[in-house]
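Researcher: I'm comparing several assemblies side by side, and this is the next one on my list. It has 520 residues spread over four chains. Same procedure as the others: predict the full complex and return the structure.
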Amino acid sequence: MAESKSELLLNLIKEYITQTLPSVSLDLVIFGFHDGQLKILLMRLLHTEHWCLPGGRIYQEEDLEAAAYRSLQERTGLHELFLQQFYTFGDVARYRHYTNREAIAKLGLPDWFTKDVNLISRDVSVGYYALVEFTRASPTPDLFADECRWWNIDEVPTLLFDHNRMIQVALKTLRRQLSYQPIGYNLLPDKFTMPQLQQLYETILGQSMDRRNFQKRILSYDILERLEKLQNGKAHKAPYLYRFNMDQYQKALEEERFLF
Amino acid sequence: MAESKSELLLNLIKEYITQTLPSVSLDLVIFGFHDGQLKILLMRLLHTEHWCLPGGRIYQEEDLEAAAYRSLQERTGLHELFLQQFYTFGDVARYRHYTNREAIAKLGLPDWFTKDVNLISRDVSVGYYALVEFTRASPTPDLFADECRWWNIDEVPTLLFDHNRMIQVALKTLRRQLSYQPIGYNLLPDKFTMPQLQQLYETILGQSMDRRNFQKRILSYDILERLEKLQNGKAHKAPYLYRFNMDQYQKALEEERFLF
DNA sequence: TCAAAAGTGTTCAATGTACACCCATGC
DNA sequence: GCATGGGTGTACATTGAACACTTTTGA
């Protein structure tokens, strides 16, 4: 079974070499939200304790964005997600702390591989971030990884390559995006309460906000529909459930007139 | 002489093939400002009437950003400029309206070239925009071009590839940048008047502003130093000259707290 | 002395911020 | 009945927008 996986991996590498663009790759910063925590999907590289961002390659006849969507779907099982390109990383030193020989050894690939294949090649990598609904995603490792799971954003370990920096840049872009576009769809369940939405904003921005002003502001943008109250059996007033009005939400996304 | 240039071109293409990264390139949207007009530097492709953005390739041991700076310097003669990555374009169709054979014929290269070289390959291209001082730049075509000159932004013709779209995206990013960072250094001469600065803002944003409110707002950010009055022999009150206080200007750039 | 363009200040509206009171619910 | 957390409204401060008058200068 381990043999078979190794063979699959060999085939995938061959496919990559013959059918994808050389020198370019993409990396995904996949954000989720659960228990009041912002989370990121990370992969553990085969036979190692090294974690990194999920990535992907671009097939010769595939659009860049399509490749990003495909990779995202392969890692989460989800489609129709929010996906946004945020920066392209191209420093030569990006890969310096991991040699080709090491990588091939770690992956358990035959030694002769080293001559023919640059597994750790110097790629320019296009960074995308995605917002996904934590409960619906099924983290799935690719053939290069043993494991794929969520990490709290403030507990992310030192990652391979320049992936920690990528997360920083992604988060910065996400925060900026928050100041002119609404957020929440794809990060929250279909129905959610106002305190939940506020918690999301506070978590992303890393600061707390006034409950009453938050509600006023969000409601003033007319992107929410109020539903029934949530009966959750807690010892306090039941909060209302809300749902995004997708027409209005889309309009706000396009017009970029949502100010926060 | 034409022979010699053709040889140089051949050598450059060989150098590109052997020493730069395949599948990745970069394109430059170089903004200048003159006579109250926002301008863009365009190149006319060798032996054609087709205009396009200046571009560049990345050497194997060169950082992406360094490659962008190098290309910018080659086209303008300037260094220490404002340069900002804004988006990476990777649609397969980007190149579709120009075949490899056509390109090679147009460039006056030998026909046998067609077999070996994909001059119009499917590249993912990283877009950068730059702000340069119109009067100091010396537009210089590369070996692929006959001509390199400024165009008013509202007179830009239909360009090759997806370059018109690139300009749109660059301009949109520039406008957004204007809302949280100061601008003007690298686009204006060292000393400039308040009306000049305002004209720059109005041109970039495409809307006129109140003279008095503009002045108040800009001055409140403490990034300007007032100098002597400008004696220009015009039949009206002489405006003050200003200069950017670079310490404050840099601080404002970094803190992104400049709100416009 | 007049037109053109620049400097400065005031008023008002809108927006954002701080803050207080009431309500529903389970223990 | 009380602690917890949620809903709503009001007062104040800050910011942004609209607007008018004065100054300098060359023709």
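Model: For your comparison table: The CA atoms of residues 5 and 143 of chain B lie 8 Å apart.
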